């Protein structure tokens, strides 16, 4: 029992250490808030992508953008999670390859100055990089959530949220926490339609 408790404390300590380091550089979080609210105010669309646990974060963020951040007398976000249409993902991965699953969806929807938000623990997933490369060529703004390790994803993103860890469970936990931080900040910019007290 003591070992289990020690393991729980160890994990929570890792999260605390990460949060402490992130608190010293919140500029990138503020930049993301500005990009998202500017997209909302100018009727631009926001697309999210990710694999595995990062895919669930991509879906979760869109849910929050479509409901949780609704503010009285304000425009609504136009957000789409590209991880949620399973038949389309299966069709592209079966008929082309897995690398195509996000970029081919972007080709249907993406316009100049839209936003693409990518979640990747490794920062090296081919389907993520392929989608970001296409988005950049189309004049979209790209936001990346990843680890502290430098990868090609950093060069493709206008803003990178780099978590000071290489542990996948910590990365995914912190990505979701920062998404909730962003949502909380946006909610404070007006009177939210929904209270969660």
Features:
single chain, Rossmann fold, globular, 197 residues, 5-stranded parallel β-sheet, alpha/beta, 8 helices
Summarize the topology.
Elements: H1 2-23, H2 27-41, E1 45-50, H3 53-68, E2 78-81, H4 86-95, H5 103-109, E3 115-119, H6 126-137, E4 141-147, H7 152-156, E5 159-163, H8 168-187
Helix pairs in contact: 2-8, 3-8, 5-6
Task: Write a concise synopsis of the structure shown.
The chain contains 8 helices and 5 strands. It is of the alpha/beta class.
- Given as residue ranges, the uncertain stretches (5+ residues, pLDDT < 50) are none
**CATH topology grouping:** Rossmann fold
Cα(first) to Cα(last) distance is 35 Å
Structural class: alpha/beta
Strand order of the largest sheet: 2-1-3-4-5
Tally of contiguous helical segments: 8
- Proportion of beta-strand residues: 5-15%
What is the H-and-E element order?
HHEHEHHEHEHEH
CATH architecture type: 3-Layer(aba) Sandwich
The CATH class is Alpha Beta
Characterize the largest beta sheet: strand count, sense, and whether it forms a barrel.
5 strands, parallel
Provide mean pLDDT, rounded: 95
Domain unit count: 1
What is the helical fraction, as a range of percent? 40-55%
CATH evolutionary superfamily: Glucose-6-phosphate isomerase like protein, domain 1
Oligomer: single chain
Sum up the overall morphology in one term.
globular
Let me know the number of strands: 5
What Rg do the Cα atoms give? 17 Å
